[in-house]
Structures are given as C-alpha cells and as structure tokens.
C-alpha cells in the first residue's frame, strides 16, 4: 500500500517536474530578474549550506524534509516533496502534525508523514528512498547532528532558518531543487500581492512593534530585520524594535525584554502585533497591569497575527498580511 | 507529655539554645527586612528610591514606575514570603519524618506530581492561566505524596526513611516519564508548561498569594503542633513508641502538613529547590535539632534565603533576570556545600 502510494507520489512528482521543468531550466533568468545562481546551469551542482557543501547529481525527484519548518517553503516552490517530518499535534498544526498554513497543500500533493513528533527516524527516511534530504540546523526540528547518517542515505542539505529570512531560504531551496524559477515567481507574485494590499491599508501613524508576549517571563520583541517587521514595513507601517537599553538578550531576529521593561519598550508604540505560537496574546497584553498605560492598549490597537505568524514561510507570510489587512484595511 | 529537651545540664544548654534561637530570629528578620526593602527597589527596570517611596505613599496608576512597584514588586515580595515559609518548613518536617537530611519537597514526588497535574491541566483541560494551574498542581502534589506513602508502606512495611526515599524516587521517575511523554506529543503544552516549570515568583498576581496563604498558614500551624511528636520521632520509631507516640500517626499528620506547605508553594511558584533543603540545615547548625527551636528559626530563615536569592537573581544579569528557582539553586548549592564541609569539621 505504502509502496503504491510512494510510486504514485513519485509519478506525480515526475509529472509535476515535467510541467515545471522547462521554466526551471530555461526561464530562470526571466523569472528571477536575471540573477541566475552560479550552479543553476545544470547538474550535478554543488550547494553550499549550513553543514558544508553537498553535490546533488541530478535534479531531485523525491525530496524528504526532516524540517517541518522548511516544508512549507519547499511546497511553495512546487518542489517534489514526498514526505515531511511532522511536529506534535496542537493549535498550529493539522491532525497529523503538519503546520496549518500549508497542510492543505501537502494533503493535495500527497505528502506523507515521514515520522511524527519531530522524532528523527532514519529508517523511515531510508524507506522513502529520497534523492534529496532537506533539514534544518536549528530549532526543535533540527537534524544537524544526524547530518552524516542522513548523507549516507541521500544528498543532504542543512539550512539555518534563524539567520536566513524566508526569502533567502526560498532562493536556497530553489537552487538545491532546480526550482529557481518557481522560487522567483513565488516571491514576485507575493510582492505584487503585498503592494496591492498596502494600497488598501490605512496604517496608524507612529512606530509599531511585533512581539511574542510571554506574560511573567521575558517577551520577545522582533527586530527590524525580522521577517515579521519586513512584512509590516512593506505594508506601510513604521517599524521599531526594542530600545537597546531595555534589551535583556539579543537573538538573531528578536530581543528578549523582561516584564518590568516592557512598559518602556512598548509604551509609545501606536500598534502592537501579537506573534504567538499558542495564544493570540491580546488578552494577556491588555490585562497586564504593567502595560495599562501603553498607547496601543489605550487605543485598542493590539492586533493578533494568528498562530502561524511565528515562523514565516510563503504561506504564513500571506496569512500574516491578511491579518493586518483585516485590522487596518480600508474595507474593515 | 514527650519532651526531648536535654535533661542533664539542661538549664545551661536550654539557655544557650534560647540565645542562639533569639540571634537566629533577630538576624533572620533583619536579613528578611533588608531583602524585602531591596526587592521593592531593585529589578530589571531601574526605579529611583524616591519613586519607590512615592509609589508606596502616593500611588499614581498613570505612572509606569508606580505600577511596577505596586502591581509587580509588592505581590512578588509577599508571594516570596509565603513560598519561602512553605518550602522551608516543609523541608524541616520532611527531614524529621524521614530522618533523611537530604529530604526536601522533591523527594516525596511532590514536584513530579504537581508537574504532571499542570501538564494534564494544559493538555486536556485547556487551562492557560496560572490561577487555573494552582489547584491542579496542589492536587497533583497531594496524590503523589499519598502514592509514595502507599508504596513505601506496602505489605505492611514500616515507613522507614530508606523505603520512603526509594518510593519517592520511583514514583517521581514514573510520573516524570508520563509527563515527558505527554509533553513530547504536545509541543504547545510544552511552551506553556516551561513557563511554570522554571520556578518563578515573577508575574504572579496577589490572588495567587491569597489562594495559597491559608494552606501555608494551616500547614505552619500543623507543623508547630507536631513539634513534640517530631522530637520523639527523631529518636527512632521504637523510642517514639516507648515515649507513647505513634510513629504512623506522626507520619500521617506530618505528611498532611508537608502536602499543605510544599503543595501550596509549588503550585504558586513552580518547582523551587534548595530552600527546603538549605534553610532547615542552616538553622539546625545554629540552634540544634530540637524542633522547638528549629521550626521557628526555619520559618524566618526560609523566606529570608528565598528573598535574598530573588533579589540577587534580579541583579546579577540585569537587565535580564534569573528565574527565582535558578537563583535559589545557584546560591543554595554553594551554601549547602559549605554547610556539609562545616558539619564535617565539626564531626571530625
């Protein structure tokens, strides 16, 4: 049964590749604005990634993703993903542990669960007979420690999604999978769509901030270089992160701020965008006694971005923009 | 009634113990008072001393600094007092009941039971607020303690210190495995759970303190009522029986006291170690093992140690903060090692 499914999936992937193959080899220049990756000319190609360099002999037809975070980006560029690791079932996933923002797409394309609960299963990876393995080197779905074992099964690349934003990741995956054209087209389409949405928006005056509110524990305020901040800026908002003097710890794209310093960090922001894995966070902020004087609380401009906004991929980016449009669009 | 105070030369020994207890109580209260004042003035956000006084005397809710002092630091200090008393007295009673100098609330599986109950509350009942965890944690701690006692006394065995410690370890491991398996399958529960599990006094509203205060007060009253039986038990089960005390009855009463104290403290602040271990040891070193001196000293020194740890946790890595449990462990660890070395010298 599984073999049949895999065969069907592989056949589907081949068909998909046949449909997209021309554009990926011939149309790369046009679609990506002339920026053809050095190794995009043919196969084999060598991909430089977070765990080293990997030679990929032929365009992959069966890809498995050991990173549930990166699977969305692979799907967005029409890469032939046969199976993906799944995380624990919860509010941000469907009932098999795939992220909600792309679970429907995965279902349509027959993507199987490689293994559940982010518990790496090398045997399952081997049984999937991949010709490319995509994994992450950071986060709960990191499989960098098993890079050597994975590389024995198939060419493997590791991506650090903490230091590269979703646009860069899309380009990197496009190059590794031979889907550069789709990656470029996905970004171009997205940018055009965001520009349309921005035209319909009425952003509040003054700086805004996106944060993951953690109640009694330090909250994370997203830095201006974060994907969340870049999306808000693209929509016309003036974005400001946390002032340096109140930051307890700087991370790659966010800074932690203790509850006592949150009033200083958030007090003058004209809107707060709640990025949260579990809850939308709005109630927490509006009922926090220390934030009673915050401008956004008084102005009722604390906006939930939804549970999918924590990790940005092409699908969650779209959901984030839609949440902002719902709050500040002229037709709201 | 049972009286285990020294009979021979007791006038001199009693006077010395009395003086030492007075010194511990006065010294402990001074440390507690200073640490409490500092806890109102010190935090990851700098509030000038004059503003702290203004906040206390002329509270203005429109000023953020006033909100920090009145809405955050005062509730935190009050909770620290309650949790410190609860953990320290629970530790002293547990050490007496099990005659195990390493006994503390974690030993009888209380932390493990409370943790499992909180995970169940989050995962299966959708509880997301601290006030909601409170009663789950309390019940979890109590059930774990009963399970440990039942296992330790299975087949009509006596609840010896070794049996209770082994039963506690076994239950804690089994319960911990269940907790981990639930967390592994529910990533979102883990995100909520870790905020409680880290052990902190930050951000707990006054209602939390109000909810656990009666339990801690009742527990302390129970511990004080058990002073003489605990002294008798310290001599061993046979000696206690010879003195007319029932060891099982003392253990049952003491167990209820421990569940009340440690269950309430853990439910309110999450698992915080070392206070329940270090405070009784420190007091015992200063005033001896007689519970008439040990328990009052522990009641004062427990919150003093926790308050000092909490304040230091806000200073050492400012503007970040160490969670209270981490600060307590960092301070409690070296203090405990020093105590052991001191005891060795005394013994040697």
UniProtKB/TrEMBL annotation, chain A:
One Pfam family this sequence matches: Peripla_BP_2
NCBIfam families registered for this protein in UniProt: PRK10957.1
InterPro entries (alphabetical): ABC_transptr_periplasmic_BD (IPR002491), Bact_iron-sidero_bind (IPR051313)
Record's signal peptide: 1-30
Localization of this protein: Cell envelope
Residues forming coiled coils: none
Homology family: Belongs to the bacterial solute-binding protein 8 family.
Domain Fe/B12 periplasmic-binding: 62-332
Record's keyword terms, sorted: Signal, Transport
Name of the protein in its database record: Fe2+-enterobactin ABC transporter substrate-binding protein
Gene3D superfamilies (UniProt xref): Nitrogenase molybdenum iron protein domain
Signal among keywords: yes
TrEMBL record, chain B:
Membrane topology summary: Multi-pass membrane protein
Keywords on record: Cell membrane, Membrane, Transmembrane, Transmembrane helix, Transport
Compartments it resides in: Cell membrane
Chain segments annotated as transmembrane: 21-42, 74-94, 106-127, 133-152, 164-185, 205-227, 239-262, 268-287, 294-316, 322-340
Keyword Membrane included in the entry's annotation: yes
Similarity annotation: Belongs to the binding-protein-dependent transport system permease family. FecCD subfamily.
Name this protein carries in UniProt: Iron ABC transporter permease
UniProt source species: Leucobacter allii
